[in-house]
Amino acid sequence: MTTKSATSQTLRLISNNGFAEVWKNEATGQQSLHATTSFAPGDVICSFHAGTTSSVVTYLTVQVDDDKHITLQPEFLQYINHSCSPTVFFDTTMMQLVCLAEVNTGDEFTFFYPSTEWEMVQPFTCYCGSSNCLNTIEGASHIKGDVLDHYRLTDFIKRKIKNRQQY
Fold first, then answer.
1. C-alpha torsion 123→97→130→150, nearest 10
2. What distance, in Å, lies between the first and last C-alpha atoms of the chain?
3. What is the value of pTM for the model shown?
4. pLDDT tens over the chain, length 167 residues
5. Domains and CATH numbers, the chain
6. Is the peptide bond preceding residue 41 cis, with omega within 30 degrees of 0?
């Protein structure tokens, strides 16, 4: 068992996946994905594809259209947690994970859930600690346009916002 201490948390290595490792917080049980190498903004970290496609949303799916939700392959990408100051973006048009902010070895990969989700199946209170934390994460449909303008969004979410503004 490999462990490391990060801000008074005990993390246990679950798996090594080349450019990233899955770590489990022993206190909370939460898993997270951490870089094993550095990335710069604009870098394509990896390609991904749909493991499954469904019209049913779950907390593990990524929304790509109104009634189209995918599970991520490689599967370990599902451990990228939310932050209101994300380090990566799921480009569901190009099917690429793209770096948004400098990521150093050991850093946790995070993404902005509303960048892919119009409505969250399980809204939650955010504790990301970012200076621009939105506090409640419910999906892009619940966020004002001027706030969303600060984020990179999927083509699907951009289309939904455009349609919302037409009414």
1. -90
2. 55
3. 0.91
4. 455 544 556 889 999 999 999 999 999 999 999 999 999 999 999 999 999 999 999 989 999 999 999 999 999 999 999 999 999 999 999 999 999 999 999 999 999 999 999 999 999 999 999 999 999 999 999 999 999 999 999 999 999 999 886 55
5. 3-161 (2.170.270.10)
6. no
